[in-house]
Every structure is written in C-alpha cells, then in structure tokens.
Automatic annotation (TrEMBL):
Pfam families: MDMPI_N
Residue intervals of the Mycothiol-dependent maleylpyruvate isomerase metal-binding domain: 27-129
GO molecular function, one term: metal ion binding
Name of the featured protein: TIGR03086 family protein
C-alpha cells in the first residue's frame, strides 16, 4: 500500500469517487434535511463542498489558495456543478507536477493539500449520504488511509469550531466508523 502522503492525487481520486457515489442520492426534496455538520442543511453542505473543490482546484492551478469564500449562489443544480467540478479536479491533480501550494503565509506540499482535501471530500460524502437517510460506509482501505491523515490534520485546536469532539469508538470498529467518529460524527 502506498503511504497516504505520497499518493495524494490517487487518494484524492478515491475520495472523490466515494463522494460522487453519495451525490447520486441527492434529490431536490432532501436539500433542506439536516446533516451531521451542526447547523447545516444539505443545501449548505453542498455549497461548502463546492467551495472546497474550488479551493482545491485553485491550489493545483495557481499554487495559491485565497482565504475568501466564493460569493454568490452556486448554480441552481448544485449536484451537477459538484460532479463537474470534482471530475475536473481529479484531472487537474492527476496531471499536476505542483510541489508546493501557498495558503495565506504558509507553504505546504501539494501532497499535503491533496490529502487534506481527500479527508474533507470523503467526510462530506459521508455527511451527504446521512442527510439523504442512507448508511453508506467509507470503504475500509480508503478509511484506513484517511484516518492516519485525519489524526495529523485535526487537532484539539480545531475543536469545537471546525470539528466536534471525537465520538468514543472501539478500536475493533470498521475503519470508516472510526474515521467519522474521530471527526466528531456518530457512525
């Protein structure tokens, strides 16, 4: 198995594949449903995912990520826009030779940025499925790789603002359950 930080683009591709599967569950009547992300309904989560994918695309295209969120309302069909953006994102990262990305005053490796994106995209793919009323576990191998990364990327400093407190989970639980529990979600 490739260590997650070395295979950033490949890991991002697997994460996007999982999230795209969850997006197939979205119907107009569920856009107002609550998500595991506190205070967000599904429509707000889809907008956030769109912003996240745009930032990842900006990172690979320009080597820089602005800290301003996209303004305005995304296209009326959020799911179609997300699918399109996700496919373009994979193509851009797969073809990229970008070694560094600047975010504010920090320089990060492209692998770190793509791996952080993989954690976010997968987690929100899980959130989308839950908001649609479907239990869609993160595949075991993907979850194992992402759990290693999440433990590096998400610290106590990120809680409770960006992530809720970890949910206690047995070390014998499936990797996907351990991943989402670590990120403050109830599997």
């Amino acid at each position: 198995m490739t260590p997650p930080l070395i295979g950033g683009a490949e890991l991002l591709e697997r994460a996007v594949g999982y999230a795209l599967g969850s997006l197939l569950l979205v119907k107009p009547e569920v856009l107002g449903h609550p998500t595991p992300c506190r205070a967000w309904d599904l429509k707000a989560l889809l907008r956030h995912m769109n912003d996240s994918l745009a930032a990842l695309h900006e990172a690979v295209d320009s080597g820089h990520v602005g800290l301003e969120a996209a303004t305005g309302d995304p296209a009326a069909d959020l799911v179609a826009e997300l699918k399109d953006r996700a496919c373009h994102l994979i193509g851009a990262w797969t073809a990229s030779t970008r070694s560094t990305v600047s975010i504010a005053d920090r320089q990060l490796t492209g692998a770190i940025v793509s791996c952080a994106g993989a954690v976010e995209i997968t987690t929100h793919g899980w959130d989308v499925a839950r908001a649609c009323g479907v239990n869609r576990p993160v595949p075991d191998e993907l979850a194992e790789d992402l759990l290693q990364l999440a433990e590096l990327f998400v610290t106590d400093h990120d809680r409770p603002d960006r992530f809720a407190a970890p949910v206690p989970m047995s070390c014998l639980a499936r990797p996907g359950d351990r991943l989402v529990a670590f990120l403050g979600r109830i599997p």
